[in-house]
Amino acid sequence: MGIANSLSLEFNHHIMNIANTQIQMRKGILEYCVLHIISRGEVYTSDLIEELTQSQMIVVEGTLYPLLNRLKTAELVDYRWVESESGPPRKYYSITEKGKTFLSTLSETWASLVSSATQITTKN
Q: Is 41 inside any structural domain?
């Protein structure tokens, strides 16, 4: 293997590690963001996807539905079916009291993490 191939493989490995780390960072705060959006009022899944996409928290339905199911199983969110004039019924999500408490704790954790990260990353 030549030097050029070796450098190319090393560079590709480095890029893959960066992408993986970025994905893990987004996944780590996705639940917090989803709960926050739902806490504002009832929300339909496509509206969640739209807001998360606009905020560059890029999410595909295959990522969001399992998360919503976990939040429902944990009793942090609930949903209700609403008949639609243009198709099948729609599932609208809302936050539960338990979800509000959980979100409040996550908000405190988020503020602490942002403060700590800012303190560390702004030192010379």
A: yes
